Amino acid sequence: MIVFRVLVLGLLGGAAAVCCQPQNDEGDALGFFDQRAERICRKNFACCVGDDLLSASEKSCVDSNTINNYAERLRSSLRRGTATLDQAAASACFAAIDKLSCGEWALVIRGDDPDPCQHIVSGSLDTGANCAEDYDCRSLYCAKSASAGQGKCAAKGTSGVACLIGTSGCVDGLSCLDDGSGATICTARKREGDACRRAFECASAHCKDGACRSECWGEVLSHELFGT
Q1: Structural domain of residue 164, as residue ranges?
Q2: pTM of the entire structure?
Q3: CA distance from start to end of the chain
Q4: Is the dihedral of CA 35, 146, 222, 188 positive or negative?
Q5: How many CB atoms lie within 10 A of CB 126?
Q6: Do 195 and 105 lie in a common domain?
Q7: Same domain (yes/no): 100, 142
Q8: Number of domains the chain is built from
Q9: For 127-165, how does the pLDDT look when each residue is reduced to its tens digit (9 = 90+)?
Q10: Does residue 106 share a domain with residue 3?
Q11: Staple 153 to which of 14, 86, 104, 137, CB 3.0 to 4.6 Å?
C-alpha cells in the first residue's frame, strides 16, 4: 500500500489538530507523512530493543522517515484532483495505532493494518487510465518504470504475477522479487531467518547480515505501511 504537526496532550491533541484541517490541502500531505513517521517511531521504540532497532534514537528514526518524496508525490496528485486525503481517517488510524499492543504492532509491520488505516488516501482513476503517480489510481498502483513520467492505472498483482521491482505493483504482503530465472514476480515475503539481500524481501522489512530479522524495526522501509 504506504507517511503522514503539532501534538498537544498526546493523542487527543494530535487528533484534534488533524481533524479540523480541510481535506486535500496540499500542505496536509506533508503533515500526514510527518505524523505517520512520529507514530511509527514512537511505537517502534516502545516495542523494539537492541539490534531490532535500525535507528539510534526516536528522533533519528523520524528524520529518516521524513526524508522521502512520497509527500510530494501525494501533493502532486492532490493538486491534479486525482486523489483525496481523508484527515478523519488519518486521525482514526493514529488513534488505533497508539492503542496497539506490541504483538499487534508486529502484525501491522507484516501488513495487517487496522481498518481505519486502509482508507486514508484514495485515487480516482480507473484501471487503464493515464497516471503519473500511484495515488492517482483507485488501485493505488500506476504501472510504469521508475524513469517513466506516465503510466497506466492497473490492478496490483497477486502471487506469481509479473511485476516491476521498486514499484508498488504487488498486493500487500507480497514483494516483487527475482524468481531465479531473471523474471520478476509478486512473491510472498520471507520470514525471520530466511536468506535475504534487501529489506523489502522480508515480512519484517528488516534484512541484516544476509537474513531476515525479527518483526520490529526503526525505519519505515516501505510506503505500503498503513495509510497509502
Answers
A1: 157-213
A2: 0.76
A3: 5
A4: positive
A5: 10
A6: no
A7: no
A8: 3
A9: 999 999 999 999 999 999 777 889 999 999 999 999 988
A10: yes
A11: 137
Gap between the Cα atoms of 212 and 210, Å rounded? 7
Taking residues 92-104, report their average pLDDT: 90
In whole angstroms, how far apart are CA 74 and each of 29, 137, 160? 6, 11, 29
**Do residues 113 and 29 share a domain?**
yes
Residues 8 and 112 both lie in one domain: yes
Same domain, 106 and 7: yes
